[in-house]
Amino acid sequence: MTRVLEVGPPMSLFRLPSLLCVVLALAAGCQRSAPPPETQARRIVSLSPSVTETLFALGAGAEIVGVSDYTALPEGTPALPKVGTTFAPNFEAIAKLKPTLLVDQQVKQAPAEALSALAPLKVLPWTSLQEVVDSVKELGRLSGREPQATALAEKMNRTLSRPAPKDAHRVLLVLGDVAGTLSEVWYMKRASLHGAALEAAGARNAVADERSGPPNLSLEGVIALDPDAVLVLINVPALDAARQAQALAPWKQLTGLRAAREDRVRLVIGSDVQSTGPAILDVVERLRAALGTLPSPR
Question: Which CATH superfamily is domain 170-291 in?
Fold first, then answer.
């Protein structure tokens, strides 16, 4: 007796397509690739006013979720949470913002290791012109705005690289305040960003050598330096005549200072005159305007 084997439907009708796909998938990717995950929205916390200013200038302001305590935001910008300073960050406040990136200036004694535990940290050198130019480009890379950053960096480099004429005024560029107190003088070093701005405006830095240590002078040291003129940076939006006179009064009392005796002390006033961000380009113009009120150097 012949035994008949029962068989099911031909395998080609039900399983061949799937088997073929498996084989082809292993060989050449027959199966559709899974879509790449969506890029995570940037949530940037900036612990540097200059970095924050630069990010806004690049058009990345909407990605900033927290800023340092002393940051002045562009006019019309909604308030942002304050998260302390470079030296004393508020770790709890930063953690609550769930940042994807922390950005700060390179400063000694800053708690970089502790900050790195909260989110990826990028510390940028921000002292000399070349450092700032390079760091602006790096911010463009980090924020996805490389073309804007390249354009801004090139403009800053072009504007701030102009040397002063050899016979230009020897100017002492200092930080001032509206209180009118003067016990010591904090000046801008030649290699600093403001030092570059002073030369670009057409003046030589009275402190020509690169001195080590903090950039401050005693009043006796200022008199011994004997600059042709003194420009005082006052970081406020405006000062009326009475308050300008108050800020100038201690300088006029330095009768041993030739610049004081010959009325060569000028105030440079503005809410951004001490900025080391893109506003430094406007500072050049303010310095040039102040220098324009001085007599020609002898």
Answer: Nitrogenase molybdenum iron protein domain (3.40.50.1980)
